[in-house]
Amino acid sequence: MSAPQIAEQPLEGHFETVVAAEQRIEPRDWMPDAYRATLVRQIAQHAHSEIIGMQPEGNWLTRAPSLRRKAILLAKAQDEAGHGLYLYAAAETLGVDRAELTEKLISGRQKYSSIFNYPTLTFADVGVIGWLVDGAAICNQVPLCRCSYGPYARAMVRICKEESFHQRQGYELLMTLMRGTEAQRRMVQDAVDRWWWPSLMMFGPPDDDSPNTARSMAWRIKRHTNDELRQRFVDMTVPQAQHLGVTLPDPALNWNEERGSWDFGEPDWSELKQVIKGQGPCNTQRIERRRAAHEDGEWVREAAAAYAAKRRADGSSTDGHKGQGDAQGAGR
Amino acid sequence: MTETKAEWPLYEVFVRPRRGLNHVHVGSLHASDDRMALLAARDLYTRRNEGVSLWVVRSDAITASTPDEQDPFFAPSGDKVYRHPTFYDIPEDVPHI
To answer: Which chain A residues are closer than 8 Å to B16 by Cβ?
Structure first.
Protein backbone atom coordinates (compact mmCIF):
# COMPACT_ATOMS: atom_id res chain seq x y z
CA MET A 1 0.00 0.00 0.00
CA SER A 2 2.94 2.29 0.51
CA ALA A 3 4.15 1.80 -3.05
CA PRO A 4 2.69 5.08 -4.38
CA GLN A 5 4.15 6.98 -1.44
CA ILE A 6 7.60 5.60 -2.08
CA ALA A 7 7.29 6.42 -5.75
CA GLU A 8 6.23 9.99 -5.00
CA GLN A 9 9.39 10.90 -3.11
CA PRO A 10 11.63 11.54 -6.14
CA LEU A 11 8.70 13.09 -8.02
CA GLU A 12 8.08 15.57 -5.26
CA GLY A 13 11.81 16.32 -5.11
CA HIS A 14 11.88 16.98 -8.84
CA PHE A 15 8.82 19.24 -8.58
CA GLU A 16 10.40 21.26 -5.75
CA THR A 17 13.64 21.61 -7.72
CA VAL A 18 11.88 22.86 -10.84
CA VAL A 19 9.86 25.41 -8.86
CA ALA A 20 12.87 26.57 -6.84
CA ALA A 21 14.86 27.04 -10.05
CA GLU A 22 12.14 29.43 -11.30
CA GLN A 23 11.26 27.03 -14.07
CA ARG A 24 7.67 26.36 -15.02
CA ILE A 25 5.51 23.37 -14.20
CA GLU A 26 3.69 22.18 -17.33
CA PRO A 27 0.36 20.35 -17.61
CA ARG A 28 1.54 16.75 -17.78
CA ASP A 29 4.26 17.10 -15.13
CA TRP A 30 3.78 15.39 -11.81
CA MET A 31 2.59 17.87 -9.18
CA PRO A 32 1.36 17.56 -5.58
CA ASP A 33 -2.41 17.12 -5.34
CA ALA A 34 -2.72 20.22 -3.17
CA TYR A 35 -0.82 22.32 -5.75
CA ARG A 36 -3.21 21.14 -8.45
CA ALA A 37 -6.26 21.77 -6.25
CA THR A 38 -5.05 25.25 -5.27
CA LEU A 39 -4.49 26.17 -8.91
CA VAL A 40 -7.86 24.82 -10.04
CA ARG A 41 -9.60 26.81 -7.32
CA GLN A 42 -7.67 30.01 -8.02
CA ILE A 43 -7.83 29.85 -11.84
CA ALA A 44 -11.53 28.91 -11.81
CA GLN A 45 -12.32 31.76 -9.43
CA HIS A 46 -10.33 34.09 -11.64
CA ALA A 47 -12.14 32.87 -14.79
CA HIS A 48 -15.53 33.21 -13.11
CA SER A 49 -14.63 36.78 -12.09
CA GLU A 50 -13.92 37.72 -15.69
CA ILE A 51 -17.21 36.23 -16.85
CA ILE A 52 -19.33 37.73 -14.06
CA GLY A 53 -17.34 40.94 -14.47
CA MET A 54 -19.05 41.54 -17.80
CA GLN A 55 -22.35 42.19 -16.04
CA PRO A 56 -21.80 45.40 -14.03
CA GLU A 57 -20.53 47.25 -17.08
CA GLY A 58 -22.75 45.40 -19.54
CA ASN A 59 -25.52 47.11 -17.62
CA TRP A 60 -24.52 50.36 -19.40
CA LEU A 61 -23.94 49.07 -22.92
CA THR A 62 -27.31 50.18 -24.25
CA ARG A 63 -27.15 53.49 -22.42
CA ALA A 64 -23.61 54.61 -23.24
CA PRO A 65 -23.71 58.36 -23.98
CA SER A 66 -22.04 58.15 -27.41
CA LEU A 67 -21.21 55.65 -30.12
CA ARG A 68 -17.53 56.04 -29.19
CA ARG A 69 -18.17 55.09 -25.56
CA LYS A 70 -20.43 52.25 -26.60
CA ALA A 71 -17.84 50.76 -28.98
CA ILE A 72 -15.18 51.01 -26.26
CA LEU A 73 -17.41 49.41 -23.64
CA LEU A 74 -18.39 46.62 -26.01
CA ALA A 75 -14.72 45.92 -26.79
CA LYS A 76 -13.99 45.82 -23.07
CA ALA A 77 -16.81 43.37 -22.35
CA GLN A 78 -15.54 41.19 -25.22
CA ASP A 79 -12.09 41.24 -23.65
CA GLU A 80 -13.52 40.10 -20.30
CA ALA A 81 -15.20 37.18 -22.06
CA GLY A 82 -11.91 36.40 -23.78
CA HIS A 83 -10.01 36.55 -20.48
CA GLY A 84 -12.51 34.17 -18.94
CA LEU A 85 -11.96 31.74 -21.80
CA TYR A 86 -8.14 31.92 -21.63
CA LEU A 87 -8.42 31.09 -17.95
CA TYR A 88 -10.93 28.26 -18.37
CA ALA A 89 -8.55 26.82 -20.98
CA ALA A 90 -5.69 27.06 -18.46
CA ALA A 91 -7.81 25.36 -15.79
CA GLU A 92 -8.68 22.57 -18.20
CA THR A 93 -4.99 21.67 -18.55
CA LEU A 94 -5.23 20.59 -14.88
CA GLY A 95 -7.81 17.93 -15.69
CA VAL A 96 -11.06 19.75 -14.97
CA ASP A 97 -13.78 20.44 -17.46
CA ARG A 98 -15.16 23.87 -18.37
CA ALA A 99 -18.77 22.67 -18.20
CA GLU A 100 -18.10 21.39 -14.70
CA LEU A 101 -16.63 24.75 -13.63
CA THR A 102 -19.61 26.63 -15.06
CA GLU A 103 -21.92 24.32 -13.16
CA LYS A 104 -19.98 25.01 -9.95
CA LEU A 105 -20.27 28.75 -10.53
CA ILE A 106 -24.01 28.82 -11.10
CA SER A 107 -24.65 26.46 -8.21
CA GLY A 108 -22.59 28.70 -5.91
CA ARG A 109 -19.92 26.09 -5.15
CA GLN A 110 -17.15 28.22 -6.61
CA LYS A 111 -16.65 31.93 -5.99
CA TYR A 112 -15.80 34.97 -8.07
CA SER A 113 -14.31 38.29 -7.01
CA SER A 114 -16.43 40.07 -4.39
CA ILE A 115 -16.12 43.36 -6.29
CA PHE A 116 -18.67 42.34 -8.92
CA ASN A 117 -21.43 42.12 -6.35
CA TYR A 118 -21.70 45.91 -6.19
CA PRO A 119 -24.14 47.73 -8.49
CA THR A 120 -23.22 50.21 -11.25
CA LEU A 121 -25.53 53.11 -10.50
CA THR A 122 -24.31 55.77 -12.95
CA PHE A 123 -22.17 55.95 -16.08
CA ALA A 124 -19.34 57.33 -13.95
CA ASP A 125 -19.18 53.84 -12.41
CA VAL A 126 -17.99 52.55 -15.79
CA GLY A 127 -15.04 54.93 -15.60
CA VAL A 128 -14.29 54.17 -11.96
CA ILE A 129 -14.39 50.42 -12.58
CA GLY A 130 -11.85 50.83 -15.36
CA TRP A 131 -9.62 53.04 -13.24
CA LEU A 132 -9.85 51.43 -9.79
CA VAL A 133 -11.14 47.89 -10.30
CA ASP A 134 -9.05 47.15 -13.37
CA GLY A 135 -6.17 49.04 -11.75
CA ALA A 136 -6.36 46.75 -8.73
CA ALA A 137 -6.69 43.74 -11.03
CA ILE A 138 -3.51 44.76 -12.84
CA CYS A 139 -1.66 45.01 -9.50
CA ASN A 140 -2.81 41.50 -8.69
CA GLN A 141 -2.18 40.07 -12.12
CA VAL A 142 1.20 41.38 -13.17
CA PRO A 143 3.04 39.16 -10.64
CA LEU A 144 0.93 36.20 -11.79
CA CYS A 145 2.69 36.42 -15.17
CA ARG A 146 5.60 34.77 -13.30
CA CYS A 147 3.45 32.11 -11.66
CA SER A 148 5.09 28.67 -11.49
CA TYR A 149 2.31 27.03 -13.50
CA GLY A 150 3.05 27.60 -17.20
CA PRO A 151 -0.45 27.77 -18.71
CA TYR A 152 -1.68 30.16 -16.00
CA ALA A 153 1.36 32.41 -16.38
CA ARG A 154 0.96 32.50 -20.17
CA ALA A 155 -2.75 33.33 -19.91
CA MET A 156 -1.85 36.16 -17.52
CA VAL A 157 0.70 37.63 -19.94
CA ARG A 158 -2.00 37.83 -22.58
CA ILE A 159 -4.52 39.28 -20.14
CA CYS A 160 -2.19 41.91 -18.71
CA LYS A 161 -1.41 43.21 -22.20
CA GLU A 162 -5.12 43.83 -22.69
CA GLU A 163 -5.96 45.20 -19.22
CA SER A 164 -3.96 48.34 -19.80
CA PHE A 165 -6.56 49.50 -22.32
CA HIS A 166 -9.27 48.86 -19.73
CA GLN A 167 -7.67 51.05 -17.13
CA ARG A 168 -6.78 53.86 -19.51
CA GLN A 169 -10.25 54.06 -21.08
CA GLY A 170 -11.71 54.35 -17.56
CA TYR A 171 -9.36 57.12 -16.52
CA GLU A 172 -9.94 58.99 -19.78
CA LEU A 173 -13.72 58.68 -19.29
CA LEU A 174 -13.38 60.19 -15.81
CA MET A 175 -11.15 63.02 -17.04
CA THR A 176 -13.83 63.85 -19.60
CA LEU A 177 -16.52 63.95 -16.91
CA MET A 178 -14.32 66.09 -14.64
CA ARG A 179 -14.02 68.66 -17.43
CA GLY A 180 -17.82 68.73 -17.66
CA THR A 181 -20.50 70.22 -15.44
CA GLU A 182 -20.58 70.43 -11.67
CA ALA A 183 -23.17 67.64 -11.65
CA GLN A 184 -20.83 65.42 -13.69
CA ARG A 185 -17.96 66.06 -11.27
CA ARG A 186 -20.25 65.14 -8.37
CA MET A 187 -21.17 61.97 -10.20
CA VAL A 188 -17.48 61.00 -10.45
CA GLN A 189 -16.85 61.73 -6.77
CA ASP A 190 -19.91 59.72 -5.79
CA ALA A 191 -18.70 56.73 -7.83
CA VAL A 192 -15.21 57.00 -6.29
CA ASP A 193 -16.77 57.10 -2.81
CA ARG A 194 -18.66 53.89 -3.46
CA TRP A 195 -15.89 51.93 -5.22
CA TRP A 196 -12.78 52.86 -3.27
CA TRP A 197 -13.16 50.51 -0.31
CA PRO A 198 -14.47 47.55 -2.31
CA SER A 199 -11.45 48.01 -4.63
CA LEU A 200 -9.09 47.74 -1.65
CA MET A 201 -10.89 44.57 -0.59
CA MET A 202 -10.12 42.99 -3.97
CA PHE A 203 -6.67 42.09 -2.62
CA GLY A 204 -8.27 39.76 -0.12
CA PRO A 205 -8.14 39.62 3.68
CA PRO A 206 -5.19 41.10 5.60
CA ASP A 207 -2.06 38.93 5.76
CA ASP A 208 -2.65 37.75 9.33
CA ASP A 209 -6.03 36.40 8.22
CA SER A 210 -4.85 34.81 4.97
CA PRO A 211 -3.88 31.24 5.90
CA ASN A 212 -2.99 29.99 2.41
CA THR A 213 -0.66 32.81 1.41
CA ALA A 214 2.54 31.24 2.76
CA ARG A 215 2.01 27.98 0.91
CA SER A 216 1.07 29.68 -2.34
CA MET A 217 4.18 31.82 -2.08
CA ALA A 218 6.38 28.78 -1.43
CA TRP A 219 4.93 27.23 -4.58
CA ARG A 220 5.58 30.49 -6.48
CA ILE A 221 1.94 30.77 -7.42
CA LYS A 222 1.74 34.00 -5.47
CA ARG A 223 4.64 36.44 -5.42
CA HIS A 224 3.48 39.09 -2.94
CA THR A 225 1.17 39.08 0.06
CA ASN A 226 -2.28 40.67 -0.04
CA ASP A 227 -1.15 43.63 2.08
CA GLU A 228 1.92 44.26 -0.08
CA LEU A 229 -0.22 44.41 -3.20
CA ARG A 230 -2.81 46.60 -1.50
CA GLN A 231 -0.11 49.07 -0.48
CA ARG A 232 1.30 49.09 -4.00
CA PHE A 233 -2.17 49.87 -5.37
CA VAL A 234 -2.74 52.74 -2.94
CA ASP A 235 0.67 54.23 -3.76
CA MET A 236 -0.09 54.04 -7.49
CA THR A 237 -3.59 55.41 -7.20
CA VAL A 238 -3.25 58.43 -4.89
CA PRO A 239 -1.36 60.59 -7.40
CA GLN A 240 -3.85 59.57 -10.10
CA ALA A 241 -6.72 60.71 -7.86
CA GLN A 242 -4.95 64.02 -7.24
CA HIS A 243 -4.46 64.56 -10.95
CA LEU A 244 -8.11 63.77 -11.57
CA GLY A 245 -9.24 66.13 -8.82
CA VAL A 246 -11.23 63.64 -6.74
CA THR A 247 -10.96 62.87 -3.05
CA LEU A 248 -10.39 59.30 -1.93
CA PRO A 249 -12.86 58.68 0.92
CA ASP A 250 -10.31 57.85 3.59
CA PRO A 251 -9.50 60.44 6.28
CA ALA A 252 -6.51 58.32 7.36
CA LEU A 253 -4.82 58.67 3.98
CA ASN A 254 -1.49 60.31 4.72
CA TRP A 255 1.97 60.38 3.12
CA ASN A 256 4.46 58.55 5.32
CA GLU A 257 7.87 60.04 4.62
CA GLU A 258 9.66 57.32 6.57
CA ARG A 259 8.13 54.43 4.67
CA GLY A 260 7.98 56.30 1.38
CA SER A 261 4.39 55.10 1.10
CA TRP A 262 0.86 56.24 1.81
CA ASP A 263 -0.70 55.27 5.14
CA PHE A 264 -4.34 54.38 4.76
CA GLY A 265 -7.30 53.23 6.82
CA GLU A 266 -8.52 49.73 7.50
CA PRO A 267 -11.21 48.41 5.14
CA ASP A 268 -14.34 47.03 6.78
CA TRP A 269 -13.45 43.35 6.71
CA SER A 270 -16.85 42.30 8.02
CA GLU A 271 -18.34 43.75 4.84
CA LEU A 272 -15.96 41.67 2.71
CA LYS A 273 -16.96 38.54 4.64
CA GLN A 274 -20.65 39.30 4.12
CA VAL A 275 -20.21 39.83 0.39
CA ILE A 276 -18.17 36.65 0.03
CA LYS A 277 -20.84 34.76 1.94
CA GLY A 278 -23.38 35.86 -0.66
CA GLN A 279 -24.92 38.84 1.08
CA GLY A 280 -23.56 41.60 -1.14
CA PRO A 281 -25.99 43.90 -2.95
CA CYS A 282 -26.00 41.94 -6.24
CA ASN A 283 -24.86 38.35 -5.54
CA THR A 284 -28.19 36.73 -6.35
CA GLN A 285 -28.77 38.83 -9.45
CA ARG A 286 -25.30 38.10 -10.88
CA ILE A 287 -25.61 34.34 -10.50
CA GLU A 288 -29.18 34.29 -11.78
CA ARG A 289 -28.13 36.24 -14.85
CA ARG A 290 -25.28 33.83 -15.51
CA ARG A 291 -27.52 30.83 -14.99
CA ALA A 292 -30.16 32.20 -17.37
CA ALA A 293 -27.55 32.93 -20.05
CA HIS A 294 -26.15 29.43 -19.69
CA GLU A 295 -29.51 27.69 -19.77
CA ASP A 296 -30.87 29.85 -22.58
CA GLY A 297 -27.80 28.85 -24.61
CA GLU A 298 -28.38 25.15 -24.18
CA TRP A 299 -30.33 24.76 -27.44
CA VAL A 300 -27.55 26.53 -29.35
CA ARG A 301 -24.93 24.15 -27.98
CA GLU A 302 -27.13 21.19 -28.81
CA ALA A 303 -27.95 22.46 -32.31
CA ALA A 304 -24.27 23.05 -33.12
CA ALA A 305 -23.34 19.58 -31.85
CA ALA A 306 -26.18 18.01 -33.85
CA TYR A 307 -25.11 19.90 -36.98
CA ALA A 308 -21.51 18.74 -36.57
CA ALA A 309 -22.68 15.14 -36.07
CA LYS A 310 -24.84 15.33 -39.20
CA ARG A 311 -21.99 16.72 -41.30
CA ARG A 312 -19.73 13.96 -40.06
CA ALA A 313 -22.35 11.36 -40.98
CA ASP A 314 -22.69 12.91 -44.46
CA GLY A 315 -18.94 12.73 -44.81
CA SER A 316 -18.71 16.41 -45.67
CA SER A 317 -16.05 18.70 -44.34
CA THR A 318 -17.32 21.44 -42.07
CA ASP A 319 -14.51 23.89 -42.64
CA GLY A 320 -12.82 25.70 -45.48
CA HIS A 321 -9.20 24.83 -45.97
CA LYS A 322 -8.00 21.33 -45.16
CA GLY A 323 -4.34 20.62 -45.55
CA GLN A 324 -3.20 24.20 -45.53
CA GLY A 325 -0.45 23.42 -43.05
CA ASP A 326 3.15 24.02 -44.05
CA ALA A 327 3.57 20.32 -44.83
CA GLN A 328 0.61 20.46 -47.24
CA GLY A 329 -1.57 17.85 -45.67
CA ALA A 330 -1.50 15.19 -43.05
CA GLY A 331 0.78 12.70 -44.79
CA ARG A 332 4.06 13.80 -43.21
CA MET B 1 -28.06 19.26 -15.58
CA THR B 2 -27.73 18.31 -19.22
CA GLU B 3 -24.39 19.97 -19.98
CA THR B 4 -22.47 16.92 -20.96
CA LYS B 5 -24.74 15.88 -23.77
CA ALA B 6 -23.86 18.96 -25.81
CA GLU B 7 -20.19 19.01 -24.80
CA TRP B 8 -18.01 20.26 -27.64
CA PRO B 9 -14.55 18.85 -28.33
CA LEU B 10 -11.35 20.69 -27.39
CA TYR B 11 -9.18 22.29 -30.07
CA GLU B 12 -5.61 23.60 -29.87
CA VAL B 13 -4.96 26.94 -31.56
CA PHE B 14 -1.79 28.01 -33.41
CA VAL B 15 -1.16 31.54 -34.64
CA ARG B 16 1.38 32.83 -37.17
CA PRO B 17 2.07 36.31 -35.78
CA ARG B 18 3.36 37.64 -39.10
CA ARG B 19 4.93 36.49 -42.33
CA GLY B 20 8.29 34.84 -41.83
CA LEU B 21 7.44 33.29 -38.46
CA ASN B 22 6.21 29.82 -37.53
CA HIS B 23 2.74 29.17 -36.20
CA VAL B 24 2.95 29.11 -32.41
CA HIS B 25 0.62 27.39 -29.96
CA VAL B 26 -1.40 30.00 -28.07
CA GLY B 27 -4.06 28.05 -26.20
CA SER B 28 -7.18 26.01 -26.65
CA LEU B 29 -10.94 26.35 -27.00
CA HIS B 30 -14.11 24.29 -27.35
CA ALA B 31 -16.03 24.23 -30.62
CA SER B 32 -18.58 21.96 -32.22
CA ASP B 33 -16.64 21.58 -35.48
CA ASP B 34 -13.54 22.75 -37.35
CA ARG B 35 -15.20 25.77 -38.90
CA MET B 36 -16.51 27.05 -35.59
CA ALA B 37 -13.12 26.41 -34.00
CA LEU B 38 -11.51 28.64 -36.62
CA LEU B 39 -14.03 31.45 -36.11
CA ALA B 40 -13.79 31.22 -32.33
CA ALA B 41 -9.99 31.18 -32.52
CA ARG B 42 -10.09 34.39 -34.55
CA ASP B 43 -12.37 36.08 -32.02
CA LEU B 44 -10.51 34.78 -29.00
CA TYR B 45 -6.83 34.91 -29.96
CA THR B 46 -6.54 37.63 -32.64
CA ARG B 47 -8.66 40.54 -31.39
CA ARG B 48 -5.70 42.90 -31.78
CA ASN B 49 -4.04 41.79 -35.03
CA GLU B 50 -1.98 39.12 -33.29
CA GLY B 51 -1.90 36.95 -36.36
CA VAL B 52 -2.00 36.61 -40.13
CA SER B 53 -2.80 32.88 -40.16
CA LEU B 54 -4.51 30.41 -37.83
CA TRP B 55 -4.42 26.64 -37.42
CA VAL B 56 -6.85 24.72 -35.26
CA VAL B 57 -6.54 21.03 -34.54
CA ARG B 58 -8.55 18.67 -32.35
CA SER B 59 -6.57 18.14 -29.14
CA ASP B 60 -7.17 14.40 -29.32
CA ALA B 61 -5.45 14.33 -32.73
CA ILE B 62 -2.11 15.38 -31.21
CA THR B 63 0.49 12.73 -30.44
CA ALA B 64 3.01 13.84 -27.83
CA SER B 65 6.17 12.62 -26.15
CA THR B 66 6.14 12.25 -22.38
CA PRO B 67 6.57 15.53 -20.50
CA ASP B 68 9.68 14.58 -18.54
CA GLU B 69 12.91 16.29 -19.62
CA GLN B 70 14.81 13.21 -18.47
CA ASP B 71 12.80 11.16 -20.95
CA PRO B 72 15.05 8.48 -22.57
CA PHE B 73 13.14 9.32 -25.76
CA PHE B 74 15.54 12.25 -26.16
CA ALA B 75 18.64 10.26 -25.18
CA PRO B 76 19.84 9.56 -28.75
CA SER B 77 20.84 13.20 -29.20
CA GLY B 78 22.31 13.54 -25.71
CA ASP B 79 25.75 12.02 -26.35
CA LYS B 80 26.36 13.27 -29.89
CA VAL B 81 28.47 16.28 -29.14
CA TYR B 82 30.03 16.04 -32.60
CA ARG B 83 26.78 17.45 -34.01
CA HIS B 84 27.70 20.85 -32.63
CA PRO B 85 30.15 23.20 -34.37
CA THR B 86 32.03 23.84 -31.12
CA PHE B 87 33.14 20.18 -31.06
CA TYR B 88 35.79 20.93 -33.70
CA ASP B 89 39.13 22.63 -32.98
CA ILE B 90 40.06 25.01 -35.76
CA PRO B 91 43.15 27.25 -35.50
CA GLU B 92 42.27 30.86 -34.74
CA ASP B 93 43.98 32.21 -37.83
CA VAL B 94 41.76 30.29 -40.27
CA PRO B 95 39.26 32.89 -41.54
CA HIS B 96 35.51 32.65 -42.09
CA ILE B 97 34.85 29.31 -40.37
So the answer is: none
- Per-residue burial over B19-42, b = 16 or more CB atoms within 10 Å of its CB, e = otherwise: eeeebeebbbbbbbbbbbbbebbe
Residue A289 CA, chain-centre distance (Å), reads 18
| Dist CA A279 CA A287 (whole Å) | 12
CB burial class (10 A; 0-12, 13-18, 19+) of residue A14? middle
**Could you tell me how many CB contacts below 8 A there are between chain A and chain B?**
77
* 8 Å CB contact between A229 and A140: yes
Give me the tens of pLDDT residue by residue for chain A, a chain 332 residues long.
444 455 667 888 989 999 999 999 999 899 999 999 999 999 999 999 999 999 999 999 999 999 999 999 999 999 999 999 999 999 999 999 999 999 999 999 999 999 999 999 999 999 999 999 999 999 999 999 999 999 999 999 999 999 989 999 999 999 999 999 999 999 999 999 999 999 999 999 999 998 889 999 999 999 999 999 999 999 999 999 999 999 999 999 999 999 999 999 999 999 999 999 989 999 999 999 999 999 999 999 999 999 999 998 988 755 556 665 665 544 33
In angstroms, rounded to a whole number, what is the distance separating the alpha carbons of residues A132 and A64?
A: 20
Which one, of A147, A256, A266, lies nearest residue A203 by Cα? A266
| Angstrom distances, CA of residue A221 to CA of A141, A215, A216 | 11, 9, 5
- Contact (Cβ atoms closer than 8 angstroms) between residue B41 and residue B61: no
CA dist A180 and A185 (Å) reads 7
Nearest CA in chain A to B45: A82
Q: Residue A145 CB: number of other CB atoms within 10 A?
A: 17
- pTM reported for the whole predicted model: 0.90
Tell me what ipTM this predicted complex has.
Answer: 0.86
Mutate to test the interface with B, among A15, A83, A85, A100 (most CBs of B within 10 A): A85
Task: Please check whether residue A159 is in contact with residue A226, taking contact to mean a CB–CB distance below 8 angstroms.
Answer: no
CA A66 to chain centroid:
27
